[in-house]
Amino acid sequence: MIEYFKLNVMRMKLNKWLLLSLLFFNALPIFAQLDIIPLPRQVKETKSSFVINKTTPIYYEKGLKKQAELLSAALSPATGFDFTISELKNPVQKGIVLRLDKTFAANKEGYRLSVNNERIAINGGSPAGVFYGIQTVLQMLPTGIYDKQRQKGVSWSVKGVDIEDAPLYPWRGMMLDVARYFFSKEYVLRFIDMMAMYKLNVLHLHLVDDSGWRLEIKKYPKLTSIGAWSGIGAERHGGYYTQDDIKEMVAYATARNVDIIPEIELPAHTLSAIAAYPYLSCTGEQQIVQTQHSISGELYCAGQESTFDFLADVFAETFALFPSKYVHIGGDEARYDRWKACPHCQKRKKDLNLTTEKDLRNYFTHRVQKMVGKYGKTIVGWDEMIEEGLKDKVVGMIWHDQKKTLQAVQDGHYAVMALTANSYLDVAESNIEGEIKAATWLPPISLEKAYQLNPMLNNLDEKYRPQILGAQGALWSDQFIHGTILQELPQLNENRSEKYFDYLTFPRMASLAEVCWTPVNKQNFKNFEQRLSTHYSRYDHAGYGYRVPLPQLTGNEKVADGFILKVQSPVDGAQIRYSTDGTRPNVYSPVYTGPVKVNNLSDFYAITVVNRNQYSLPLFFPENYDKFKSYGKLVTEWKPQTIKSDYSILEINAGGKVNGNGNYQLSFWQVNGTSGLNIQSIEVFKNGKKIGEDVHQGLAAESPKDNIYKFNISDYETGAVYLIKAKVSGGDTRGAAFLKKD
Ligand code: ACM
Ligand code: ZN
C-alpha cells in the first residue's frame, strides 16, 4: 500500500509534460482533431466549446451584413436552423459575433477567431478577413455542415480555440481555362465556392484562346456568334458568357473575396477572334475555329492600327464588367513567322527602328499597357512577356522556370508562380495505369509535389521579396476540348465532363492553398495529409468530386519468407481492400484489418474504398528497372494478359518523355516469362497525325534481337499529344519499354 502511494507521488513529480499529455489524450475522444486547411498561423486550443443550435443568434457589426448572410446561408441547409441576423449593438452578446478589428493594419485579410462556451467571435481586418474566419469555423464543424440536405442527429459543436491568422501571400489564385472547354456559369460559381473554402482569392479566367472566345463583346458580335463555336451539326460545341452572366459571376466572387481577372489573350492563341474578324491577322485570310487542340500560328497583326482599335474597344467593354485592377493579356507561345512575312509588321519595325520580332512584341505589349493604364489597370502576362526589354512594370506569371523570377523582379516587375512543375493541375497526379488521361506533356504532379511549391525564390534579396505576390494553380483544358474522346474513368462513371476537373482540382488545390497561406516553418506535408483526411467527407457533402488517394504504406518488414505490410487509409472513414495474388483489387476484395504477409512484394495491391463508386487507383510495388536505366525513361509495361498471340497494337503514351526536338530510341525488354515479345513496327503520332515510324522485326526476350526502334522529332510543341503505336505479339511475356533522347 505504501509502495503504491509512493509510486503515485513519484509519478506526479515526474514531469508536468506527462500529465499534460495524459490530459491531452483524455481530451481526444471528446474533441476531434482540428483539421483546418490552410493551417492557421497560431492556434491555441482551450477546454471550452460552443454548440450552434436553433436559437443561436448571429450579430454583425456595421459593414458586415453580407458576411453574416453568407454565414447564415452556409449553416442553414445542413443544420435546418433559421438564424436571426441582427446588427450588433452591445459587443458582449452571446452567439456568433462578426466584427472588424482595426489592428490588422497591414494584412487586412487576417482575422482572429475566439470560440468559448458563450460565443464564436470573429474579428476580421476587413470583410474579407471576417469571411475567412467564417471559413475556418465551417472547417471546425462536423463535415456534414457542407451538405445541402438537413443532417439529422448531429451536434454542431465547435471546439474552443483562440486563432490568429493571416495569409502569407496576397495572391492565391487559380486559373480556369474556359476557352478550350466552355465551363457553364454554374460550374464557375461552384468553383468559386471550392476556392473560397480554402481562402483562395484570385480566379483568372482564360477567356480567349484559339479554340474559343468566351466573352460577349457587344461591338463585335461575331466574336461569340462565330468565335465561340467549333465543329458543325451535332458536333458543334462551345458557348460563351453573356455580359449579364459575367456580372453575376463577378458579384458572386466579390462577396467571397475572389477577384476575377479576365484574360484577353494576345497576340497568339487568338484564332477564335481571327476566325470571327479575319482582318485582325497579318494575312486577312479566313480561318475556322479548330475542333481539336493545336496552337495556331496566326497572330494579331502588330503593324495595322485596326488591331489596336479592336483591342481598345474590347478592353472598354471588358473593364465595364470586371472591377479587378488587373487584366491578363497572355503573351505566351507566340511564333513570329506571320509577323516576319507581313509587310505591315515589317514596316512598323522599320519605322520604329526595332531590331527583332521580340522588340515588336514589346512595342505591342507597351501599347496595350498604355491602353489599359487609362483605366487604372495593370497587365499580367505569362513569363514570355517579361523576358527582355519591357519597360512597363507588370505582373509576370512564371510558368517555365522559377529562376526567371530573379530577372523579373530586378527589372521591377511583380511575379506570381504558376509553375508547370507544381501547379499545372491539368496534369495527372500519377502515371499509374487507369489514371485520368489529362495533360501528358509534363510529368505527373502528385499531391506532395503540389505541396512542395514555395512561391519565394531561394535566397532572394529581402528588398525584392514584396514583389513576389504569390502563386496560382492552372487548370488548362486543352486535353478536354469539346469533342475529344478521353479514356473512361470508371471511378467517376462517366466519359468526359466537368467532373473531370473536380478530380484534377481536389485535393491538390488544398496543397496550393496551404503553401500560399501558411508560414513556411509551419508547413509539413505529413501533417497536412492527416488534416486532409476529413476533408474528403466535406467534398462528398458539398458534392465536389475529387481524386481518392491511394492507401498509405506505413510498414514494410522483411521476414524470412516474405514481407509484412501495413497500410492505412488516407481518407477518414474509408476502407482499404487488398489482394495478394498480383491482381488489382476491387470494391469487393477482402477488407484490410491488420498487417498482411506476402511472399513477393509484387503480389500485393491495395485500394482505398470510399464507397462502391469512389475508390482509388492501387498502391503496389512496381518492378525495379534500375538495370535498364541507360535506355531512358519507362514508357510502358506489358503482361501476358495485355499481349495477344496475333499481332495487335500496344499504345504507348510518350507524353512528358518526348520533350523536345531530337533523335529518340524506344527499346523493348523482357523481364520474365517463357516466351518473348515480337515487335513488327512502331509508328509515332503527334495530335493523332503520324509523324514517324520504324518498321523492322524485333524481339524482346531473354536474348533480345533488334529490339531498339528509332524516330526523330523535328517540330516539337508543348501541349501536343505524342503517342506511339507498336505492333506486337507474344505469349507468356512480361516486360517494359524505355524511351531515350540521344
Ligand atoms: C502556358 O502554359 N502556355 C502558359
Ligand atoms: Zn502583321
Strand content: 25-35%
What's the CATH architecture of the largest domain?
A: Alpha-Beta Barrel
Number of helices: 18
How many separate domains make up the residues?
A: 5
Note poorly predicted spans: 1-32, 485-495
Q: What is the fourth-level CATH superfamily of the largest domain?
A: Glycosidases
Instruction: Look at the helices and sheets and give the structural class.
Output: alpha/beta
Identify the CATH class of the largest domain: Alpha Beta
| CATH fold call of the largest domain | TIM Barrel
Strand order of the largest sheet: 8-9-14-15-16-17-18-19
What hetero molecules are in the model?
acetamide, zinc ion
Mean pLDDT value: 91
Categorize the overall geometry. Answer: globular
Percent range of helical residues: 10-25%
The biggest beta sheet is recorded as: 8 strands, parallel, barrel
What is Rg? 29 Å
Number of strands: 34
Straight-line distance between termini: 81 Å
